[in-house]
Amino acid sequence: MPSAADVRDILAPHLVGRLEDGLVLLDVVGLDVIDHGRRFTVAMELFAPDGHWRVHLECDSTEHRIFDSNPEEELVQAVAISLRIRLFEWWHTKDSERKSARMGERLT
User: Which of 11, 26, 31, 47 has the fewest CB atoms within 10 Å around its CB?
Assistant: First the structure.
């Protein structure tokens, strides 16, 4: 069974770097995975147009299958796509939704 560090290493090539959704460019510079048993959190450090942030994205038991030994590439890609979608949702709603605002922490 992969560790949280192994899962981070599996996800990093799909999430670290410049991510764009057509409206905003986010530069993800760090990624950490915290395993909570049947769920996990991905903490992403990034630079956005308004500063330096750390964002915590919660993942559920379905996505936790990435902790199975040798996860299939389709699962890795699906989890990475889901995390990207949630990251951009956070960005676009952080100023208007309380739940989104709590997910991010401004570092600068």
Answer: 47
- The sheet carrying 104-106 orders its strands as 17-20, 25-35, 40-48, 51-59, 104-106
Residues 90 and 100: beta-carbon distance below 8 Å: yes
- Pull the structure tokens for residue 39: 């769920």
User: At how many degrees (to 10) do helices 4-15 and 73-93 cross?
Assistant: 70
Q: What is the largest CA-CA distance in the chain?
A: 39
Please state whether beta strands 40-48 and 51-59 pair in parallel, antiparallel, or not at all (unpaired).
antiparallel
Phi, psi values for residue 21, rounded to 5°: -115, 15
Cα 88 to Cα 76: distance, rounded to the nearest angstrom: 19
CA gap 48, 28 in Å, rounded: 9
pLDDT digits (tens, 9 = 90+) for 49-81: 999 999 999 999 899 999 998 899 999 999 999
